[in-house]
Specification:
Blueprint: H1 6-34, H2 40-52, E1 66-68, E2 73-83, E3 89-98, E4 105-107, E5 112-120, H3 132-135, E6 138-145, E7 148-156, E8 162-165, E9 172-173, E10 178-183, E11 186-193, E12 197-198, E13 205-206, E14 212-215
Antiparallel strand pairs: 1-14, 2-3, 2-13, 3-11, 4-10, 5-6, 5-9, 6-7, 7-11, 8-10, 12-14
Helix pairs in contact: 1-2
Length: about 220
């Protein structure tokens, strides 16, 4: 279980956005000297940047078989696909759209080891478009947990142009652990094993590291 106190959460927020705040503060000072009324604009943007990069506390369920949402947002689609990068077989794909108002930090959906990482350059069409997943910039994170493999995919959108990922191959992840961020509007996909017991449907709102998407099917050891 991930334990994050308020100070460490705010420290991460500042680490992610300090350069934006510095630039906007300089701009506010310049505007104040030239035309004080305009200084309000960068000040408002500073507030928005702090809001966008916020890192709220999450109550992470302590269940090793529970699959948590890797992102905040709205579930746009749930379908069965053939995932040939990491799972290499049939999987359930859950697509999540993040608006510019959502928390954009990604979290590990379950405990396990990162066994696959791949970055694919691409375009930047709006993440809610059905074909965005096929052509947009993406970052893949494959996690192996016991008998199962789960793949998380960070997808840029029209506004989002920067993907950051802190889950390097070989890293052991705790359930709900922070694994990355997509800056300024985006999408996230998660591929889970077929046979998983789903708890969500299209249109549901979810929170990273807190909302349960479903439960892993019985493991191979459980069937012996």
């Amino acid at each position: 279980m991930v334990n994050e106190n308020m100070l460490s959460r705010f420290a991460l927020t500042l680490k992610l956005c300090w350069h934006y705040i510095v630039a906007l503060s300089v701009l506010a000072a310049v505007f104040y000297l030239i035309f004080p009324t305009l200084a309000v604009v960068p000040v408002v943007l500073i507030v928005f940047v702090l809001f966008f990069f916020r890192n709220p506390k999450r109550n992470v369920p302590d269940d090793k078989n529970c699959i948590l949402s890797p992102a905040d947002g709205v579930i746009m689609e749930i379908d069965e696909v053939i995932e040939d990068r990491f799972i290499q077989g049939p999987a359930i794909r859950i697509s999540i759209f993040l608006s510019i108002l959502n928390v954009h930090l990604n979290r590990s959906p379950l405990q396990g080891e990162v066994r696959y990482r791949y970055y694919r350059p691409g375009k930047f069409i709006p993440a809610f478009k059905s074909h965005a997943s096929d052509i947009n910039e993406k970052n893949f994170i494959g996690i192996e947990s016991g008998d199962f493999k789960v793949l998380v995919c960070q997808i840029t959108g029209f506004i989002a142009r920067r993907i950051k990922c802190w889950a390097d191959e070989g890293k052991r992840l705790a359930v709900g652990e922070l694994i990355g961020i997509i800056k300024f509007g985006s999408g996230t996909e998660i591929f889970i094993p077929t046979g998983s017991d789903l708890y969500v449907k299209k249109g549901d709102k979810v929170k990273a590291g807190e909302s349960a998407l479903g439960m892993l099917p019985p493991g191979l050891d459980d069937n012996k």
